């Protein structure tokens, strides 16, 4: 069974000093690079937001960052503006071995809907095309690493399991935001979905 490493959102805005920094986010770059040689394919995802994205707290007058609002597709955390198309923060961490990637999937570029998962927008219906790409290449065994463990990594791994892929999260090569206990909740959700936590 061919194996793919799915590297989630290793971008400057999610690393220390970025607009939505995850503590220790830069610490996992070298371990991720080391893992790449063990896989038949490497896929990078990239958060890629227009400046007027609906998930940005700045675009909701009076709303605080990290508050939750109801969108047409369900509850949405309002984030500080991050990974805006064309900004330095949207770029990959410079130490990431991005040249090893077979594919880069950009997500979150539709202004009115967020996209945590590498497979679907947050409506759980609009696909990114990643599942078809992986199946066409015979990739059924997927390992997930990157940022952030409790949001984009977890949503991606859960969707992979639901789609019938073998999904593993290599937790040492992730870091979490841990918003109100979200890391442990994500671990429980992943386990229930059949994701292996390694």
Automatic annotation (TrEMBL):
One of the record's GO molecular function terms: nicotinamidase activity
Keywords: Hydrolase, Metal-binding, Pyridine nucleotide biosynthesis
Pathway membership: Cofactor biosynthesis; nicotinate biosynthesis; nicotinate from nicotinamide: step 1/1
Keyword rRNA-binding recorded: no
InterPro entries xref list: Isochorismatase-like_dom (IPR000868), Isochorismatase-like_sf (IPR036380), Isochorismatase_Nicotinamidase (IPR052347)
Gene Ontology BP annotations: pyridine nucleotide biosynthetic process
Enzyme class: hydrolase
Repressor recorded as keyword: no
Residue stretches making up the Isochorismatase-like domain: 4-196
Superkingdom assignment: Bacteria
Region forming the signal peptide: none
EC number: 3.5.1.19
NCBIfam families per UniProt: PRK11609.1
Similarity-based family: Belongs to the isochorismatase family.
PANTHER family, sorted: LD05707P, PYRAZINAMIDASE/NICOTINAMIDASE
Protein name: Nicotinamidase
């Amino acid at each position: 069974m061919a194996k793919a490493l799915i590297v989630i959102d290793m971008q400057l805005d999610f690393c220390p000093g970025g607009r939505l920094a995850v503590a220790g986010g830069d610490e996992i770059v070298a371990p991720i690079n080391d893992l790449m040689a063990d896989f038949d394919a490497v896929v990078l995802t990239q958060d890629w937001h227009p400046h007027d994205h609906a998930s940005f707290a700045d675009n909701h007058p009076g709303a605080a960052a990290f508050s939750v609002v109801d969108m047409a597709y369900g509850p949405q955390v309002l984030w500080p503006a991050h990974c805006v198309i064309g900004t330095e923060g949207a770029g990959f961490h410079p130490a990431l071995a991005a040249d090893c990637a077979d594919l880069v999937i950009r997500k979150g570029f539709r202004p009115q809907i967020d996209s945590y998962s590498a497979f679907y927008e947050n409506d759980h219906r609009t696909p990114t095309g990643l599942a078809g790409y992986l199946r066409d290449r015979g990739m059924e065994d997927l390992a997930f690493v990157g940022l952030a463990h409790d949001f984009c990594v977890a949503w991606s791994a859960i969707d992979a399991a639901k789609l019938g892929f073998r999904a593993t999260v290599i937790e040492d090569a992730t870091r979490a935001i841990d918003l109100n206990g979200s890391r442990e909740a994500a671990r429980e959700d992943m386990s229930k979905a059949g994701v292996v936590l390694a």
